[in-house]
Design goal:
Strand content of chain B: under 5%
Number of helices of chain A: 11
Strand order of the largest sheet of chain B: 1-2
Shape of chain B: globular
Mean pLDDT of chain B: 80
Order of helices and strands of chain A: HHHHEEEHHHHEHHH
Distance between the termini of chain A: 55 Å
Number of strands of chain A: 4
Oligomer: heterodimer
Number of domains of chain B: 1
Strand content of chain A: under 5%
Structural class of chain B: mainly alpha
CATH architecture of chain B: Orthogonal Bundle
Low-confidence stretches of chain B: 337-347, 357-375
Helix content of chain B: over 70%
Number of strands of chain B: 2
Number of domains of chain A: 1
Order of helices and strands of chain B: HHHHHEHHHHEHHHHHHH
Mean pLDDT of chain A: 87
CATH topology of chain B: ABC transporter involved in vitamin B12 uptake, BtuC
Strand order of the largest sheet of chain A: 1-4
Largest interface: A-B, 46 and 50 residues
Radius of gyration of chain B: 25 Å
Largest sheet of chain B: 2 strands, antiparallel
């Protein structure tokens, strides 16, 4: 019973990671850059939920506000900070992304202060069944993220825009020649990623109500790790990596001997997987050409 | 021989040496306040970190986000060595031995991290170094109180502050000597060629594996030494101080100073640390974070300005170096072939430009003047 409970909470945490990892992996696949600020978009989403919740008391309205704000923020970041660097060295883009991440964190600190905010999204209670006790919010997280992931997969596979995204990720130049507006596709990617980040922000606040300006930093890094483990650029890979990461974290947290080293264990798994399979579990191998 | 020595190459040593001597005299005469001594120590540590990170980021062209992790290894292991060795060897030998131990063990970790660097590139390596930094921090945080202090931190021996910062400055000069000489040697050119085009470098017969490991080892050695100095300077080591934000702060110094410029890194490290200490003492509470906003904006604006393809023309027009060149006397006859300015030559071959075929024919049809007249 304990094992099943652990697995469910792991899958729930993992699905949150997967939502964040999807943002990383889509941007990496399409814009060929590591959006370091993605984790902090979650944090901004969290603050938006906090602001709306304290004004109206409706968590769904908070989610809506967070999604809208994060989409605008994500697109703005892309336009202002990353677009001028298209075609520059990956190192330059990465450093700019780190700068954006720091900027978001410290701006949030100036606006909302260092003290942590308690965000009560609403207690949904527990569900008991045959001696199994599960928080309903855990199940909601798991269910919502599964729906979102399936919707995203269908969107990418069957819509015109989705296929254009695949085309851009495979060969930007060729996609452009086929009449795809690459800038627009990159913008849409950032919008989708940021919207998913806002959802992840809500899920994280449902799990633990404390909100600080570093809410997204560690989950962001872990989700990126998950995306890399799954094979960066691959959407199923990000889901798999995220779920794997969540389950490992949940199991590790229940074993007292290794619980303090949970973060270290996750990162060691990353290093080992990258050494054995540098492209991740589902990643495709790409030949480097001169 | 003396004619070949360029003042430019030695100005950083000269400035640092003079500064060290002057500050040492001031310190022993008691003219320096303890707060200034603390700041000088911090500056020395920052310079060492920035110069060593500049080797990896600016010259090898790999992004490392775990520099604070190497420093953490040096601080804890070197600090522990100093605690154990001080009763046995005495104050000074213990300091020297623990500096070496901290540096060597950090270098060992550098090689261990350098090994994945051989298989991974760019973003992947960045995330592995970041992961390494977090692993190190998490491991030291969960050690027992007797071994490394755990969450309480490790207490290190007290050392005469008036002498410690002089030792730190001397170590900075040593660090500078090693990196400058390496970068300006044949090996340094091999390292920069790996940065510019790894495949081409490999094809030219450069042992990429060896050079990557060497750069990682040297860079993390000095990060470790800086860590030991840090442990002496603060009397204690707290694992929470070596988080990823600290690695970013070092990276900001390197980027602000200019990638691939050691003197730039030194100036930026001095400036940022000075500002940092000043702001820390004068700004309190939530205002302290304004500093972070400032850093973040500097980072974004500088990187976009220096790298955006759209600003290329603007950059070339308003290049600071070119502005300085205007005031210099040009004497072409004094330039010899063997002192080619390799560091100024754009080594990166623009393959697209070389291979592209210009499709825009300027004038597809030019009517003959004489023909026109005939009609």
């Amino acid at each position: 019973m304990k094992l099943i409970e652990t697995l469910i909470s792991g899958l729930s945490m993992g699905s949150t990671y997967a939502m964040i990892a999807l943002g990383y992996t889509m941007v990496y696949g399409i814009a060929k850059m590591l959006n370091f600020a993605h984790g902090d978009v979650i944090m901004v989403g969290g603050y938006m939920i906090f602001v709306t919740l304290s004004a109206t008391g409706n968590p769904l309205l908070g989610l809506l506000a967070a999604v809208l704000f994060c989409v605008v923020l994500g697109v703005t970041i892309e336009k202002v900070a990353y677009k001028p660097l298209r075609g520059a060295s990956p190192l330059a883009v990465l450093i700019t992304a780190i700068g954006v991440s720091k900027l978001l964190q410290s701006t949030a600190q100036v606006v909302f202060g260092t003290a942590q905010k308690m965000v009560n999204v609403g207690d949904l209670g527990y569900l008991s069944w045959n001696g199994l006790t599960v928080q309903i919010s855990t199940l909601v997280t798991l269910g919502c993220s599964m729906v979102l992931m399936v919707a995203l997969s269908l969107f990418v596979k069957y819509t015109r825009t989705g296929r254009a995204m695949i085309a851009v990720s495979e060969d930007r130049g060729a996609a452009q020649l086929m009449g795809i507006n690459v800038n627009k596709i990159i913008m849409i990617t950032f919008a989708i990623g940021s919207a998913l980040a806002a959802f992840a922000g809500l899920f994280m606040l449902m799990k633990s109500p404390s909100l600080t300006n570093t809410l997204g930093a560690m989950p962001g890094i872990k989700a990126f790790t998950a995306a890399v483990i799954g094979g960066i650029g691959s959407i199923p890979g990000a889901m798999l990596g995220g779920l794997l990461m969540g389950v490992v974290e949940a199991i590790s947290l229940t074993v007292p001997a290794i619980a303090p080293y949970t973060d270290a264990i996750e990162f060691i798994i990353l290093i080992v997987i990258l050494l054995v399979r540098p492209t991740g579990i589902l990643g495709k191998k790409r030949r480097e050409k001169v | 021989m003396l004619k070949n020595i360029k003042w430019k190459h030695y100005i950083s040593y000269a400035v640092l040496a003079i500064a060290t001597v002057v500050l040492a005299i001031l310190s022993f005469s008691g003219a320096l306040k303890s707060s200034s001594i603390y700041m000088l120590e911090k500056i020395a540590i920052s310079i060492m970190l920035a110069v060593s990170l500049s080797m990896v980021v600016g010259f090898l062209g790999e992004l490392s986000l775990g520099h604070a992790g190497f420093m953490c290894v040096g601080a804890y292991l070197g600090g522990k060595a100093s605690v154990l060795l001080e009763p046995l060897l005495g104050e000074y030998p213990a300091l020297i031995v623990s500096l070496l131990i901290g540096g060597a063990l950090a270098a060992l970790f550098g090689v261990i991290i350098g090994l994945p660097a051989l298989r991974l590139r760019g973003d992947y390596l960045a995330i592995v170094t970041l992961a390494f930094g977090e692993i190190v921090r998490s491991v030291f945080m969960n050690t027992s109180t007797e071994s490394f202090g755990g969450t309480l931190g490790l207490d290190t021996p007290r050392f005469d502050k008036k002498i410690l910062f002089v030792i730190a400055l001397v170590l900075v000069i040593g660090c500078l000597a090693v990196t400058q000489n390496l970068i300006r040697s044949k090996h340094g050119r091999a390292i920069t060629s790996i940065r510019d085009n790894e495949i081409a470098a490999r094809a030219t017969g450069i042992n990429v594996t060896k050079y990557k490991l060497v750069v990682f080892a040297i860079s993390s050695f000095f990060a470790g030494v800086a860590g030991v100095l840090y442990s002496y300077s603060n009397y204690s080591v707290q694992s929470a101080n070596f988080d990823y934000n600290y690695s970013i702060e070092i990276l900001v110094m390197v980027v602000l100073g200019g990638m691939g410029s050691i003197n730039g890194s030194i100036i930026a490290a001095t400036l940022i640390t000075f500002l940092d200490v000043q702001l820390q003492t004068h700004l309190t509470g939530d205002l302290a974070v304004l500093k972070d906003i400032f850093y973040a904006l500097i980072l974004i604006v500088l990187v976009i300005y220096n790298n955006a393809p759209a600003l290329k023309g603007f950059r070339e027009k308003y290049n600071i170096r070119k502005l300085f060149d205007r005031f210099k006397k040009h004497n072409p006859s004094s330039i010899k072939d063997d002192e080619a300015k390799w560091d100024r030559v754009p080594t990166k071959i623009q393959m697209d430009e070389v291979l592209s075929v210009d499709l825009q024919v300027s004038s597809p049809y030019t009517p003959d003047k004489s023909g026109k007249e005939d009609a």
